[in-house]
Amino acid sequence: MSEDQKNERSIWHVYQGKLGAPLTLAVLVFVGCLLGILSRPENHLASLWLANATMAGFMLRVPASVSPLGWLLSTLAFLAADLLTGSGLFKAGILTVANLMGVAATYTVYKRLSKGAIGIRQPMSVLQLAIACACGAAASGLVGAVANPLLFDGGVLIGFIFWSVTEFANYIGILPVILSMPEPAARARRIVINSAAPIRWRGMLPVFGLFVSCMGAIVIGGPGAIAFPVPALLWCAVTYSVFVTALLTLMASAWMLISFSHSLPYDESLLISLRLGVFLIVPGPIMLSSVMQSNNKLLVTLKQMAARDGLTGVSNRLDFLDRAQEQLNAASSSVGVMMIDLDHFKEINDTHGHSAGDAVLIAVAGRIQRCLRSSDLLGRLGGEEFAILIPDRSAEELIAVAERIRHTVADSTVGLPNHRSIPVTMSIGLVVVENGNGLSIERLLIEADSALYRAKSAGRNRVVLSGAPEPVN
Description:
EC 2.7.7.65; alpha+beta; diguanylate cyclase; transmembrane; GGDEF_dom; Alpha-Beta Plaits; two-stranded antiparallel ribbon; diguanylate cyclase activity; five-stranded mixed β-sheet
């Protein structure tokens, strides 16, 4: 483990500790409150309130913060932020109660719906999150119904609606970023995009398109302007991971919300429509990104299943032939190809049963793999036959590798499902070529198989070297 990795791990453990987690939570809440207060239109709620969603998200991601100390420190953080920025104790108290009720409801509902699986790993997670956000928003709205007449001289119903919509917008915009955020070590090293390719200049085109669409929305204005970024956000969703998509969606939504809030005359109905419209855009790109990521993982799994032998886990015949030919074409020095056949394997099946034969094949494949480098290629061609391609080794080295494989298998018995053990030996045919260019893997396998036949004819449990074939023009 590198020094950077050790530092990241130690930092991660500190803020997950019994004391560190509540303290970190309180600091995040306090900073989120201050940033939210800066975005408040005069004498009303913030355009973007970070503290509540940050608190709920941190509690979901770091269970150690969900403690009496965490709740106490967070309550003090809410009160301190309001009092330090000029609010009276009565107003700060009501706002703090609304914040804490919303966080508690969001945390409890999402925890129950997700059954403890925290994150945006599948499209259904977005729906679960939206329900939790709506419940948290409604809880805050109940306090808002009481607080609006007392603090802002407004009506009860409009207070409930305005507070609920505002809180829903904050939760649905911020929580996906926190819940999909990678662990520190992974986040420090790479940003995963759905295509599994490194981000080059072409990979930044969706971000540029999003920037242009947001600027166009602000310049052109009008009721339809909030929909301008949607195509670019969908482009981001099919290009980037859920975390990056959620972060870009939040940034675009917050930018437009703050820009429009401060450029329009204050009107509660208008602000309700604006905030709800902007943040109802959020679930679509995140859900699409989740679908894309799930599909890509499924494709990778299917590809691996199609390339692997179902019993031993090594390459199957088709995968071995394809990859071996690629390595053969790229080889600039000597290459060795081995054909391996287990001796008297039919007798093992006939005497001990096919389950015993399967156990032997699994054990032998594992022993062979331990004798090879990561650059060497092992495949099961069928039955008890295995093939190996080893690049960049001399003939003497390849013979030594073949003998090591043979001894590794023969020197210890193989355990069977019936708790018995049996000895297993193998015969190996080896062909070595100085340059693989112009040769086909099928031809080399035929040469190696011929050497394997001579090894069996000579008494089995041995390695026989074949002469190198001539390239085909």
